[in-house]
Amino acid sequence: MRRFIAYTAALCLLLSFTACTPKGQSGAGGDSGPDEREIILSTTTSVNDSGLLDYLQPYLKEDKGITLNILAQGSGQALATAAAGDADAVIAHSPAAEKEFVANGSGTDRTEFMHNFYVIVGPSDDPAGLSGAADTADAMSLILASGNKFVSRGDESGTHTKEKSLWALTDVDYEADTENYMSIGKGMGDTLVTASEVQGYTLTDLSTFLSMKDKLDLEVAVDQGSDLKNVYSVILVAEQSGKEIKTDDARDFMDWLLSEKALGLIAEYGKDKYGQALFFIGQ
Amino acid sequence: MSNSELWQIIATSLSVCLASTTISAFLSAPFSLALGLGKGRAAKFFRTIVTALSNIPPVVAGLVVYMLVSRSGPLSSLRLVYTKTAMVAAQVLVVTPLITSVIFPVFMQMQNTFLETCIGLSLPKGKIAYLLFRECRYIYASAILIGFGRAMSEVAAVSMTGGNIRHKTRVLTTAIMLSTSKGDFKEALSLSGVLIALVLLVNFIAGRIKGLDAR
Q1: Measured between alpha carbons, how far is A31 from A134 in angstroms, rounded to an integer?
Q2: What is the C-alpha separation between B14 and B198, in angstroms, rounded?
């Protein structure tokens, strides 16, 4: 017992020393890798669920010594968290909300750097007949008109914002159809599970859908189409008085993310596992 | 959020929690009698189990019910997934052990005094059970209200089984989660205020009822 206490005390002492080591000193000699740094990246559930950041993390660590602490939330909350100074950088896909975030001084250097496509997914037998739809707007109206269910994120996320813009292309009063229009206020994964459960349709980003496809009883009903494009941006959180924002480290992360190497890695991501790239470079 | 939607959410919260608490109140009566008056190792074993289950994480109760009623579950034909019925079922799993675990120790204490007297008077069994419940009606009522408070304040079970569907299965706690995830902290705080007011009211009533007992 006494020996156990001695070991524990020694361990605590050791840990307290490590905590005291000044940041950046380890890199001073030049021969030991880059500095150990950590930043908080506030991002959307769809980015995190796709696994992209876990895939990039080891390269980022090797090149810049930066560890990402990821807060995965809906776009609305991701931006709100950043505006409150609780994150150093943001990756989001809700252009209108992002522009407002920059315009009100919460963020700087917003850069659109990759995109993919939303898809409408639904039951495999396509009861609403979306495969015969003329365009995206037509497909959206067909869902409720044929008495099928549509499951909405309903959480002011990028995907929800996109969905509302698609409804705006139609003349459907979707909110009035409380029987078939199900607004569940949850993340992308939960929404897909619910859609599969009630055998309804939903709008999703392709990457989250592909990463969960084997657990779902859903198929892609509508894809492609320029109005289904989904653009991702990286934004630095602006310095605010009284908040400790690691602007320099976040800028290093951003520069790295926009470097040819990182963009090349992103373009390759998913090809081995899903047979197709999940993200495309550029806006 | 419109006023009518807020009222709808409050109404859903209250109806689900009232239903689950009522069912649990009835279910816990025979359980607490059996556990409180039962003798031997089996009774002791189940007393331990129920006491432990009084702290069952709502997320586990929700998961169990969800897996039973989901499309791939054994009860899928009942089509209960994302309904108030499923929410009530999950809450019954949470609230019943809670009420039972408050009541059965009271019966255990009454065993040597009250029960012996009743048996001594050779009263019929039904009459004894009635008298036992009558004797501890105040603590029973406050246990029910504690259960109701737990049902009102848990989020995981109702979120999983109800699916937080707007106008249908959205309750106060899941609405608070949603406002927070939208980054709308103001709305989240207002809803929290409503929830806390309701829970406080219930606890206040529970306190008063318990106080009656002391008189």
Answers
A1: 61
A2: 10
**Tens digit of each residue's pLDDT (9 = 90 or more) over A23-53:** 444 433 344 456 678 888 888 877 877 788 8
* Nearest by CB: B165 against A76, A77, A183: A183
Residues of chain B contacting A155 with CB distance shorter than 8 Å = 178, 181-182
User: The pTM is what?
Assistant: 0.76
Q: How far apart are CA B139 and CA B111, in angstroms?
A: 16
Closest residue in B to A81 (Cα–Cα): B183
Cross-chain Cβ contact B166/A184 below 8 Å: yes
Tell me whether residue A16 is in a domain.
no
CB contact under 8 A, A198 and B170: no
Domain identity same for A223 and A133? yes
Among A155, A182, A194, select the one facing B181 at the smallest CB separation: A155
Predicted confidence (pLDDT) per residue in A220-266, tens digit: 998 877 788 889 999 999 887 667 788 888 888 999 999 989 999 99
- The ipTM value here is 0.76
Residues A127 and A222 in one domain: yes
CATH number attached to the domain at B3-214: 1.10.3720.10
What are the tokens at A143? 């869902």
**Residue A71 at interface with chain B, using a CB cutoff of 8 Å:** no
- Residue B29 has which token pair? 């009566």
Interchain contact, A182 vs B183, CB within 8 Å: no
Cα distance between residue B107 and residue B122, in whole Å: 19
